[in-house]
Amino acid sequence: MAIVVTVMVAVFARDVNHAAHNASGPRRSEDLSFAALSNALVTQENQFDTHLASLLNQAGTLPRVVFAARLYQLNDALAGWSEDADLLRHPSLSHNINDSIDTLTDERVAAYQTLLGDVARSLELPWTTKPNEPVTNPGATLIATSEQWNRDRYALRKEPGHVNLDATSVASAKYFLTHGVSLVTRSASLELVRAISIDAVRVDPSAFPSASGLMVLPPVRIVQLGISVLNASYDDQPITLSVRVTPLNGLGQAFSQTMTATLGPDAAYAFVPRALVTSPSERATLVIRVLGVRAAVGKVSEEHFRLEMSPSGN
After folding, report:
1. What is the pTM of this model?
2. Distance between CA 176 and CA 120 in Å, rounded?
3. What residues contact 194, with CB distance under 8 A and at least 6 apart?
4. Does one domain contain both 200 and 164?
5. Are 181 and 299 in a shared domain?
6. Which residue pairs from 122-126 have beta carbons closer than 8 angstroms and sit at least 24 positions apart in sequence?
7. Number of domains the chain contains
């Protein structure tokens, strides 16, 4: 009986060892695959952190448009992180390491989006991205999530494959905790200088050749204006355009119209006011103003014309 029991125990132990050996193979493969993919994601995050820290440190040397372009590029790079982390949730590995990287990545994406938005708004740059869950203190959140990951990343060290998971870096978070947006907003090269101007005034029918500031038109009953306004600064600029016609000789009709629009960075907008009702031989003043915004250098935000309608041929 003792011999039989010994043989049975030996066979059972052999079967257990064989099953364990067979089970460790797939687990090793899964752990190694997870390590390769998660390390690739962490590499992206660390490169992002390096580029953002460099951008913040160089802010005082960059033109506003260049700084904005790089900030937009960084913001676009965040889009795929959460999707990549979500794909790592299966198959489930030891110590819930899948859930850890997925949750922490989502938190870091929201923190980076909040941080970039804070920088953009402090400079009054055009900005539309809003994190799903805004973060009150993005710098502190980035450091806390990095510390958490740098504890969790040892979870598979003693598992099949003995994989090493890379650490995350926090250079930009430390910069933001130390300086916030103060150094960026004090940079003269990034300062917003608002610059709006009247770029062109067109009239239909076309005016006869005349002196500057004078519009001599044929004796028509309807005149249509078109005014192009240019935003020469890098911002989203709300503007108000005023068009006013004042008769001088008792002919024609007084006219006044105010129009609004928002011009994007280095963009122009064409305003088309209502048609002017005119009379032959009418004399009037035409004043076009962009209200409340300074003119671009060498440009104007107000135009004055003398409007003269030719006599009727009848």
Report:
1. 0.78
2. 13
3. 233, 235, 237, 293, 294
4. no
5. no
6. 122/181, 122/184, 122/185, 123/64, 123/67, 123/68, 123/184, 123/185, 123/190, 123/192, 124/192, 124/235, 125/64, 125/68, 125/71, 125/234, 125/235, 126/68, 126/235, 126/236, 126/264, 126/265
7. 2
Assess if residue 171 is contained within a domain: yes
Whether residue 80 is found in the same domain as residue 224: no
The answer to whether the CB of 145 falls within 8 A of the CB of 169 is no
Q: Is 314 part of any domain?
A: no
Domain C-terminal end among 137, 166, 190: 190
CB 217, CB 234: distance < 8 Å: no
Number of Cβ within a 10 Å radius of residue 111: 26
Q: Coil, strand, or helix at residue 285?
A: strand
Same domain? For 178 and 207 the reply is: no
Residue 201 and residue 227: Cα distance in Å, rounded? 5
Of the candidates 234, 179, 193, 194, the residue with the CA atom closest to the CA atom of residue 57: 179
Look at residue 70 and tell me if it is in a domain.
Answer: yes
Quote the domain boundaries for residue 62: 2-190
**Spatial distance between the Cα atoms of 281 and 272, rounded to a whole number of angstroms:** 24
Looking at the fold, whether 283 and 141 belong to one and the same domain comes out as: no
Task: List the pLDDT tens digit at each of the 314 positions of the chain.
Answer: 444 333 333 433 344 344 444 456 677 777 788 888 999 999 999 999 999 999 999 988 999 999 999 999 999 999 899 999 998 887 777 677 888 999 999 999 999 999 999 999 999 999 998 887 889 999 999 999 999 998 887 776 666 656 788 999 999 999 999 999 998 999 999 999 888 999 999 999 999 999 999 999 999 999 999 999 999 899 999 999 999 999 999 888 999 999 999 999 989 999 999 999 999 999 999 999 999 887 777 788 999 999 999 998 65
Torsion of CA 270, 275, 280, 284, to 10 degrees: -60
Interatomic CA distance for residues 229 and 302, integer angstroms:
11
